[in-house]
Amino acid sequence: MFDRKLNMDSIFHEKQEGSLCAQHCLNNLLQGEYFTPVDLSSIAHQLDEEERMRMAEGGMASEEYRTFLQQPSGNMDDSGFFSIQVISNALRVWGLELILFNSPEYQRLMINPINEKAFICNYKEHWFTIRKLGQQWFNLNSLLTGPELISDTYLALFLAQLQQEGYSIFVIRGNLPECEAEQILGIMRVHQQQRPRLIGEDEAQTSMGTSASQTQPDVGFVVEDEDEELKRALALSRQDMDVEDEEADVRRAIQLSMQGAVMSNSSSECEVSGVKSSSADEGQKVQSETLTAEELRKRRQAYFERQQQQAQPNIPQQPDTNPGSANTGSEEDQQQESSQ
């Protein structure tokens, strides 16, 4: 029984270098290093020469011919891009043909995509291959870190998505050369645990991991992981606290609004009660003043009574300083004696 990892490793997959996506697309389709930039450049120069000869038929002194000579090649550029004509001519070497996927002629055939062998996709200056190996489909985009497994159900959706994004899709017709992956995957199906990432993402994560490994000792990896988990736990707890704080703020706002209503009602009640209390205070003041006057009257009366009680027994004993009053008393005594 074959190892599943070895099955995936058997798939030839060229990763992106510069702008040589056309070369990667062809080699991933053919599952081997069949074309080099020099090979594709030769095909491009040959196409340019054929076009020049056709333009020369109209007259080498014509304005169209001179303009054509001044224009750069339409089949290649210095970055490594190659046109569809270069790819098509390169595939003819292997007896393969390109058919536009969304052309009316092909659409009339009503062929299910899973019954095809391979597709070439192009958007602007990027080319990549989708190929069937064994009984399974794989996205062999050179921008990915590795082959991406595509299910039969997802294939049609993936092609439709590419068309919506502006890709031109070409169906590969003809017999593809034999390859090791086709033989191995024809015996056993593979299962992909983790999908490949874009090369840029992988390099970014690798650089981040390298910088972390340079700044942290090896023994600190586990601690770093625990710290990260602790940080995530604290972040989650802060989020929960924020939610609780928001709920508490809402409750306080509701309480304050209710208190405001109660205070507005109580203020009016306080005004009424204030009038009542003020009138009650005035009544208490009047009552206090009345009680004070009565107490003074009672005290005066008691004082006078005590003065009268003290004065009545002492009246006979007190000498009369008025001489007139003394004579009068003596005369009265004499009259009483004479009458007796």
Structural notes for this entry:
With 340 residues, the protein is of the alpha+beta class. It has helices spanning 4-9, 21-30, 37-56, 63-70, 84-92, 104-109, 152-164, 180-185, 199-215, 221-311, 323-339; strands at residues 97-100, 118-123, 126-133, 136-139, 148-150, 168-173. It is elongated. Residues 215-227, 240-247, 260-290 and 314-340 have low confidence and may be disordered.
Helix and strand arrangement:
Elements: H1 4-9, H2 21-30, H3 37-56, H4 63-70, H5 84-92, E1 97-100, H6 104-109, E2 118-123, E3 126-133, E4 136-139, E5 148-150, H7 152-164, E6 168-173, H8 180-185, H9 199-215, H10 221-311, H11 323-339
Q: Could you provide a short overview of the structure?
A:
The chain is α+β, with helices and mostly antiparallel strands.
Radius of gyration: 58 Å
Q: Are there runs of 5+ residues with pLDDT below 50, and where?
A: 215-227, 240-247, 260-290, 314-340
**Overall spatial form:** elongated
> What is the β-strand count?
6
Cross-sheet strand order for the largest sheet: 1-6-2-3-4-5
Helix content: 55-70%
Number of helices, where a helix is a run of at least 4 consecutive DSSP H or I residues: 11
Supply the key terms.
single chain; 340 residues; alpha+beta; 6-stranded antiparallel sheet; 60% helix; elongated; disordered C terminus
